[in-house]
Specification:
heterodimer, A: about 475 residues, alpha+beta, Arc Repressor Mutant, subunit A, 16 helices, elongated, B: about 475 residues, Amidase signature (AS) enzymes, 11-stranded mixed beta sheet, globular
């Protein structure tokens, strides 16, 4: 019997997101990524005697934005708290955080599986805190090195309820969070660089049991895939323990990406006592109703709402709508195109086809795509008017536009002599030419191999330089061959 | 040169009877001749003289600031860019500040001269100045006795005329108690009135910087310069600063609350009670109204104070870990031993006591019983004080139950030592402004201090009141 038939896994995720602010949470130091070590460090970051924190208001704005986008309640009276522990990369010996008054609480994030089934993952809280510095243990053979540039950078921690029941759901949840934070310009969502980090609380229980099993916290997973691998490993490990009667300890485990295994880091007994207490250096933070309303009014349209609009209002297939709403820049470009055309499906096709392959080939993001949306609109209009075929538009005019983005698609089509030929006498001449050229094929066709029509069509296209109107040509070919 | 007030100095400066340079030279000699008092940890002699010459020039050009002629010392827990600051601790031995406290910048901007840094109890923890890593400060009025603490050096320096005025800091009485023991005036402003940026924190929600001076008028002059909103301190008040005159309007009848219980309380020295009674009689004679009041929380003040301040201190002092600055133990071999040894060797006993107590009261399982409860006491005491003050202009009480005691007298018994703070911690727990001013002497001729506690931001009234009672 497989473990999956007997046991179920219960997962809660804690996601840390570095906020995209120019300066740190409580000082004016820069948050620039990749700056030389220990250059973004004022006396505040260094925890010099007598220094005091000063709240960066942008931090509050971003947290409230994220809270509203995840259906959270926003707290009016917030207190900061100190989380005390000693570590070499923690200059003050405490992190300024929030403890019993998280700024956002009781929200949810909707995830959707491939079949389109939706599930809400509840968010217990989103709270503000400052990051610690970085300890580097592998660059010097004797000493550990400390870089305090990251110390004091603003973070939000998003804590889910234990509503996640598989590694797939964990992946969907994290993908959704990443999409959301990027949409909102709250965080760049980069897991490899550590601007988005995830810890998982994992337990296993008999299917249908109501009580939760012993919880294990797994850390150090720097990609969505690794979070999933860690979950899968833990499921097997914990099921094994249950089967063999071994105790599952409440502990913190470290994920090793090379072996794909988790290893014990510290037990519950060794867990820190953080001695949280209200931060006396900061007055309570008051988030007013008016402030929340203002942020709400400035919130961009969110992926889920856009998805619904694209499907219901624009009639796009769900696949297309999902693809476009993956990120904000793609949506922005799509919206730019449809300012110039009402053929939404054609706009989606251009984006998922030629534009995507161009960007992939050049290694560019959509923001760097050289053509404005109106150019794609022109291409769609040109095809629609019957003046060029889809093939000519994508194979000839699109590359020409990329080389010469100032000219309009129609002008380029004219100049390159690409306007579709639908004049019957001209087409007739080409058709006759082809029929004369392939007498054997004509005989075969007449003998019943009607599929050869495609080949004749291709030949006509060849001599016409792609300009032959396919509809009229097909009709003429049939008329002549069937005669 | 024994100027009773800054006003007198400025009058002589204007008349050309004295120069800032000669004044500074005088104080430098005074400091040298009174080294045994151990008030100064470091004297900025060269720099002070240089500034003095510049300020003399400015005076000649009529461009001098409001505090030109003021030679001031600062407690060794206030940061001054490019100068050492140690909080009288070994752990910061040779530490130099990279920036200046807001109060320092404001003093300098008005042409005060900072002549040196003053001894205090280590990290401002103490009531006798016996807990400095750099030795005790002697009370200049009786060198067998303590000057009080923690701003002992600040009070002694003013009493011995080593400089004209000083800055101290007050977390539970650290300005007012030594001011009382040394016969000087000490003002603890409303919490949030003076920026704490650049003050080495002991207990952040209690600490305030304030002046120790020879008279209330000087305290008013210094207070007016250092007080006011500072964007670098999020807990500083944005309430506009009223001009401070330190003068009660003539014919104004003050409603002064007092606690009749204290007049009978045997644990308060007889002469202190007599002085209290005398002050009340004087007020009555001058036509002011006395209001009998009750305050039922004295028993809770010191315990609540020590739970809350040590909790904050345990966290505030975590940064002194030997990693980025300050003393790192030469015996450290790894991170853990660097912490343990640097802190064990760097901190004195009293500081360690308080860090341990504070760590305990915040730890899981004890938080509610200690920290949580003390916070509730804080709220109740604050409500009670606001109630009390709503029916009067100020509350008059003694500053201390005793006058300056002998060295070692209270050292064996921390509880006895902590009870020194019984009348002063209240204003820090509630954040109210309070002033201590000299009022009479005991049988040995030692000064007695009385204390006026006022409504929030009513410093001017307290200053005027003490000026009036002295006159």
């Amino acid at each position: 019997m497989k473990f999956e038939d007997k046991y179920e896994i219960v997962i809660g995720l804690e996601v840390h997101a570095q906020l995209q602010t120019l300066s740190k949470a409580f000082s004016a130091d820069s948050t620039e990524f990749g700056a030389s070590p220990n250059t973004c460090v004022s006396v505040i970051t260094l925890g010099h005697p007598g220094t005091l924190p000063k709240l960066n208001e942008k931090v509050v704005e971003l947290a409230v934005k994220l809270g509203l986008a995840t259906n959270c309640q926003i707290r009016e009276v917030n207190r900061f708290a100190r989380k005390n522990y000693f570590y070499a990369d923690l200059p003050k010996g405490y992190q300024i955080s929030q403890f019993d008054t998280p700024i956002c609480y009781d929200g949810y994030i909707t995830i959707k599986d491939d079949a389109g089934n939706a599930k809400n993952i509840r968010l217990e809280r989103i709270h503000l805190e400052e990051d610690a510095g970085k300890s580097i243990h592998d660059q010097d053979p004797f000493d550990s090195l400390i870089d305090l540039n990251r110390a004091g950078v603003a973070l939000v921690e998003m804590v889910s309820r234990p509503d996640i029941s598989s590694s797939q759901e964990a992946g969907l949840y994290l993908t959704e969070i990443r999409k959301l934070v990027r949409y909102l310009d709250v965080c760049d969502g980069n897991m490899e660089e550590g601007s988005l980090r995830c810890d998982a609380n994992i337990s296993v229980r008999l299917k249908g049991a109501t009580e939760l099993g012993t919880k294990v916290e797994v850390k150090n997973m720097n990609s969505i895939r690794n979070v999933q691998r860690a979950i899968e490993f833990e499921f097997q490990r914990q099921c094994n323990c249950l089967e063999t009667g071994e105790t599952i300890y409440q502990e913190t485990r470290n994920f090793d990406a090379v072996s794909g295994e988790t290893r014990s880091m510290r037990s519950k007994e060794m867990a820190h006592d953080y001695r949280y207490f209200p931060e006396p250096d900061l007055p309570p933070l008051i988030v007013s109703e008016a402030y929340i309303d203002k942020i709400k009014s400035e919130l961009p349209e969110l992926p889920e709402a856009l998805f619904q609009k694209f499907v219901k209002q624009y009639g796009l297939p769900e696949y297309d709508a999902y693809w476009i709403t993956e990120d904000k820049a793609t949506v922005a470009y799509f919206l730019q195109i449809i300012k110039h055309t009402e053929d939404y499906k054609a706009a989606a096709n251009w984006m998922m086809g030629k534009i995507r392959s161009y960007l992939n080939e050049k290694g560019l993001s959509i923001e760097k795509f050289p053509l404005g949306g109106e150019k794609i609109g022109e291409l769609i209009a040109l095809v629609k008017s019957g003046k060029v075929s889809n093939t000519v538009a994508s194979e000839n005019i699109f590359p020409a536009l990329l080389e010469n983005p100032i000219k309009s698609a129609a002008v380029l089509a004219e100049e390159k002599n690409l306007i579709q030929q639908s004049d019957e006498s001209a087409l007739s001449a080409w058709v006759d030419q082809v029929i004369a050229k392939f007498p054997e094929k004509v005989a075969e066709y007449k003998g019943g191999k009607v599929g050869l029509i495609g080949m004749f069509m291709g030949e006509v296209m060849k001599i016409s330089g792609g300009k032959a109107d396919p509809k009229v040509t097909t009709r003429l070919l049939k008329e002549k061959l069937d005669a | 040169m024994n100027y009773a007030s800054l006003d007198a100095i400025r009058t002589d400066l204007a008349a050309g009877k004295v120069s800032v340079t000669s004044l500074t030279e005088f104080y430098l000699r005074q400091i040298k001749e009174n080294k045994d008092i151990n008030a100064f940890l470091e004297v900025f002699a060269e720099e002070a003289l240089q500034s003095a010459r510049l300020i003399d020039q400015k005076i000649a050009e009529g461009k001098a600031g409001k505090l030109a002629g003021l030679v001031i010392g600062i407690k060794d827990n206030i940061c001054f860019k490019g100068h050492k600051v140690t909080a009288s601790s070994k752990i910061l031995e040779n530490f130099e500040s990279q920036y200046s406290a807001t109060v320092v910048e404001r003093l300098l901007a008005e042409d005060a001269i900072i002549i040196g840094r003053l001894n205090c109890d280590e990290f401002a923890m103490g009531s006798s100045n016996e807990k400095s890593a750099y030795g005790p400060v002697l009370n200049p009025l009786d060198k067998t006795r303590v000057p009080g603490g923690s701003s002992g050096g600040s009070a002694a320096a003013v009493a011995a005329n080593l400089c004209h005025a000083t800055l101290g800091s007050d977390t539970g009485g650290s300005i007012r108690q030594p001011a009382a023991f040394c016969g000087t005036v000490g003002l603890k402003p409303t919490y949030g009135r003076v920026s704490r940026w650049g003050l080495i924190a002991y207990a952040s929600s209690f600490d305030q910087i304030g002046p120790i001076t020879r008279c209330a008028e000087d305290a008013a002059a210094i207070y007016s310069v250092i007080a006011g909103f500072d964007p670098n301190d999020a807990t500083s008040s944005s309430k506009p600063l009223k001009p401070c005159k330190a003068k009660i309007e003539e014919n104004k009848v003050l409603k002064v609350a007092y606690l009749p219980d204290l007049l009978q309380n045997e644990s308060i020295k007889k002469e202190v009670r007599d002085a209290y009674q005398n002050a009340l009689n004087t007020l009555k004679e001058r036509g002011h109204e006395l209001v009998e009041a009750r305050f039922d929380y004295f028993d809770y003040l010191v315990p609540a104070y020590y739970v809350l301040t040590t909790a904050e201190a345990s966290s505030n002092l975590s940064r002194f870990d030997g990693i980025r600055y300050g003393r790192r133990s030469p015996n450290a071999v790894d991170l853990d031993s660097a912490y343990k040894k640097s802190r064990s060797e760097g901190f004195g006993r009293e500081v360690k006591n308080r860090i341990m107590l504070g760590t305990f009261v915040l730890s899981a399982g004890f938080y509610d019983a200690y920290y949580g409860k003390a916070q509730k006491v804080r709220r109740k005491v604050t409500d009670a004080m606001n109630d009390l003050l709503s029916g009067c202009d100020l509350l008059l009480i003694p500053t201390t139950p005793d006058t300056a005691f002998r060295f070692g007298e209270n050292s064996d018994d921390p509880i006895k030592m902590y009870l020194q703070d019984i009348f002063t911690v209240q204003a820090n727990i509630t954040g109210h402004p309070a002033i201590s001013f000299p009022f009479g002497n005991d049988e040995k001729g030692l000064p007695i201090g009385l204390q006026a506690v006022g409504k929030y931001f009513e410093e001017d009234l307290l200053l005027g009141f003490s000026a009036m009672l002295k006159a």
